[in-house]
Every structure is written in structure tokens, then in C-alpha cells.
Design a protein that fits this description.
Number of strands: 4
Structural class: alpha+beta
Largest sheet: 4 strands, antiparallel
Number of helices: 4
Strand order of the largest sheet: 1-2-4-3
Order of helices and strands: HHEEHEEH
Helix content: 40-55%
Radius of gyration: 23 Å
Strand content: 15-25%
Shape: elongated
Amino acid sequence: METQEFDEELQETNRIYKEIGDLNTKELLELQGAITQIKENSQKEKKENTLAWLEQSVISVLKDYAEEIGGTFNSEDDEAGNRIITLRNDGGFDIDSENVRLRMALSVASYTYIGYGDGKSVLNLTYDPIVIGK
């Protein structure tokens, strides 16, 4: 059984609001800078955690699949920080209902491209760690 008390948290929040109301303009500007830094650090940590999860849970599945089908695997990050995985194969991609891990890896992708280029089938998956981490 889990019990959580929110009264203390609410009281602390009210105390913080009162302290903020007592700040002068200079102090408010300093606080704004600190809040911005905290948010940036939090976002960065969340992104790093999501990329670590992606590596362990998704990218490893895609590497295994590429090896299984005799294809090639490529991983790179774009300028926005998205992880882009490209699989290439001579024979196409068979994804059946039995391969639950691969289907999970596909469903987490923010963008999926399936095509043909340079004589090979191409599966391109883009993973946005900010979207996944929400």
C-alpha cells in the first residue's frame, strides 16, 4: 500500500511563493536566471537518460535485427540531437507479429522512412529523445 501526504508539499510551495513575492527586481532577475539554468540542466539530464535507455532498449534490438537479416546498421545524431538509425538490406525487411522487441523499437520512433536506394531496401528511424522522455 502506498500513502502520500501532500499537505507539507503544498505548505512548502506556498512558503516559496511568499518569498518570491518579497523579492526586489534585481533578486527576481537573478532568480529567473537560476530557474532557466535548472530547467536546462533538467532537460539535459532527461535527454541523457533517454539516450541511455534508447541505447539499451531500442538500438541493441535494431543492431540484433540488422545482424539477423544480414544487413547493415548505421547510427548517427543530427544537429537537433535526434538519433537516426539506418538499416540497409538486399532482401527487404520482414517484420512479423512474433518479433515484439522489434515492433516496440519501431513504435518508439518519431519518424519512420521505408524506401529503396543504391540497390538496397532502406529502413530509416529517427528517435527524438526529448519527445520520448516526456
